[in-house]
Please model this.
Amino acid sequence: MTVPLDLHPDVRAALAEDRPVVALESTLITHGLPYPTNLQTALAMEQAIRDHGATPATVAVLDGRIRVGLELADIERLIELGPEQVRKCSRRDLPLVVGLKGHGATTVAGTMIVAHMAGIDVFATGGIGGVHRGHPQDISADLVELGRTPVAVVCSGAKSILDLPLTLEVLETQGVPVIGYGTDELPAFYSRSSGLPVDLRIESPAEAAAIIDARSTLGLPQGILITVPVPAEHELPAEAAEQAIAEATRIADEQGITGKAITPFVLGKVLELTGGRSRDANTALLVNNAAVAAQIAVALAERRLTGR
Ligand code: PSU
Ligand code: MN
Model:
């Protein structure tokens, strides 16, 4: 069996010509955001990437084929099939959906694996998985993937529904540098600051590109986490966010929600509890991260072109 990997013609052409490409995940479309916010946000992220001079490559598995770069009709199909028919696809799930010709929406881990297979260095998303509050044995496969797959992930930290200090500890163990893009503090997803320090603050796409290049020159296998705070005008005040998250987590525990169902459940509850304000923050940071990732991909392509 050869790898059933289908690159969209635009993505294939960009990669062949060493032009910048940014990978996007699909779990946030099928499991992370409600309709129609999911469709609007997926398209807005792709547009933000194009507006900044790069080619978007949204990743998913359809009919057992790994797709890198989707058409509007593919995104609509994923949404219509919904979470019942589209498997949330982390590392462990890829052989299941490919083997049995199913459908999969890739998580951060799943998207990193596919991006690396396709030769894409930069990936934008909202928040990575992490260590769950009160369940320190529930460590997202995203953290382990970041330790072993060389893709730069541009995000707003880990979802703040997680235990951020423990998440940083696991990232350290995995050898993953956590970089703050214009910030000294790890962003807390819905809010700009967490009080937790990042490993290094940078200010420009060129610095991110230099670090990505150095990782590659050194032959190190790990990913790099580039964290970008939600734009200030869309920030959810830390206290309001924290209250909603604590309450949502309590309800999830009470209802015995576990495993991969926790994230969608808690995010849904937070949305209810903040009267939809968490959605504004979520979509704003996603589109902003896509734009930053595109700028980084452009800087990386320029750097490689000029050999410095
Ligand atoms: N961030 C969101 N919504 C999501 C996710 C992240 O705002 O749905 C998804 C991402 O795909 C991430 C995954 O990789 O949740 C982590 O899931 P788990 O904790 O089960 O590893
Ligand atoms: Mn988990």
Remarks:
- The pocket of manganese (II) ion (ligand 2) is lined by residues 129, 138, 140, 260 (CB under 6 Å).
